[in-house]
Amino acid sequence: MNVELVRDLAMAMVVGRVFGADVRTVLRRLAAAQVRAGISELARDRERGGEGDS
């Protein structure tokens, strides 16, 4: 391996360690928001009496 590749890999590892927890938190919150949106859509569909109608 050349020096540039080693440097790039080391930088990627540092960035992963620094921002890894933040990325996981953002992804977890995004998933939770999508679940909430899906549940509210199902509830809205049931209120209209369109259960199962596509």
| N→C terminal distance | 56 Å
Helix count, per DSSP?
A: 1
- DSSP, total strands: 0
Q: Overall pLDDT, averaged?
A: 87
Shape: rod-shaped
Order of helices and strands: H
- Largest sheet report: none
Alpha carbon gyration radius? 21 Å
- Strand fraction: under 5%
The percent of residues in helical segments reads over 70%
Query: Low-confidence spans: pLDDT under 50, at least 5 residues?
Result: none
Counting helices, strands and paired strands, the structural category is: mainly alpha
Structural overview:
By secondary structure, the chain is mostly helical. It contains one helix and no strands. It has one helix at residues 3-47. The longest helix has 45 residues, at 3-47. The protein is rod-shaped and about 65 Å long. 0% of the residues are buried.
Précis, in short:
This protein has 54 residues and is mainly alpha-helical.
